[in-house]
Amino acid sequence: MGHSVGQVAGFAGVTVRTLHHYDEIGLLTPGGRSHAGHRRYSDDDLDRLQQILFYRELGFPLDQVAVLLDDPDADPRAHLRRQHELLTARIARLQEMAAAVETAMEAKKMGIDLTPEEKFEVFGDFDPEQHADEAERRWGGTEAYRESRRRTASYTKDDWKRINDEFAALHARVGDLLAQGFAPDSPEAMNAAEEHRRFISGHHYACSYEMHAGLGEMYVGDERFTAFYESIRPGLAGYLRDAILANAARNG
User: DSSP readout, 5-69?
Assistant: First the structure.
């Protein structure tokens, strides 16, 4: 008879609603039904759900997961190998980040001021001074740049920490929307994009919808910004850009 939807939800740690959603979009259609018409999941269905949850954890959009799993030439073992490689890479990255946090904590505890290079070493080949110089070259003549310089000049280290933590949490929420399969033009994604725009306006400069759209294009056009967003969720740079454009269109 297979497993009921409630049993499968318990096995996998997901909600019954999630399983119903997967069925509705054709991502995971149970192989059987009970005499009363209730969903019954086979062992093969459980294997597919495991693959779905692996890919979802890695940040793949649900429509892309469907394409990967429905490829007739795909080898189930190849899926597992790929997922193992991606997870191993993520673990290594998180370990690097954890080590950087520990270094920063120890430096604070000992009263040691880290150099800019030490602070940003974990993020790769990134030179804060070079980035600041480039920003001035690109936007130094604009009122937005001058406003940002005036406002941020008074920020303390605690202010920057709070602002960066809030921005990171916002990016994480957008990444979760991507992972859950919300379209970039969905109300949820557009509302997140609007929150992103207001965050910039609240902490840096008055960010119009036109300016915000330009930032979105930069997120996919500049490989450094793209790499930053892709490190949060694969596909996030393009997803955020599309959500920003959809939100701008929604607001005229």
Answer: HHHHHHHHT--HHHHHHHHHTTSS--SEE-TT--EEE-HHHHHHHHHHHHHHHTT--HHHHHHHH
- Describe the chain by its helix, strand, coil percentages, rounded to 5: 75, 5, 25
Query: What DSSP character marks residue 123?
Result: G
Tell me the pLDDT band of 232, cut-offs 50, 70 and 90: confident
- Check: CB of residue 235 under 8 Å from CB of residue 56: no
What residue type is 46 in one-letter code? L
pLDDT single digits (tens) 167-178: 888 999 999 999
Q: Mind listing the pLDDT tens digit for each residue in 125-142?
A: 434 334 344 444 555 566
d(CA 35, CA 74): 34
What integer pLDDT is reported at residue 131 of this predicted model? 39
For residue 3, the SS3 value is strand
Distance CA 220, CA 158 (A): 30
CB atoms within 10 A of CB 125: 8
Contact 236, 229 (CB under 8 A): yes
Q: Whole-angstrom Cα distance, residue 235 to residue 227?
A: 10
Task: Determine the Cα–Cα distance for residues 151 and 155; give it in Å rounded to an integer.
Answer: 7
